[in-house]
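# nightly structure sweep
# worker-07 picked up a monomer target from the shared queue
# config: single-sequence mode, recycle default, output format = structure tokens
# input follows
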Amino acid sequence: VCASSMGEFLKPENWERHTFAVPCLALYAENPMEDPNVEENLRKEFPDLTFAKWYDTGHFLMMEKPERFNAVLQDFLDTTR
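# output follows
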């Protein structure tokens, strides 16, 4: 599985950019290693993007702030039905 996965990862045709016309939710925790243009780059592929960055959590924001995460997710689901 690993060899197959890496083989597909290295194929140039698998790196073509596409646009997905579906609602998309991206919740990010602050990360100093993150590309500063992450939101802009995501919007190129997901024009109907809801983006939020949280500065008071670590990587596992859904576990660290479950009530807040669930509220944001529920609101997103309610508005995309």
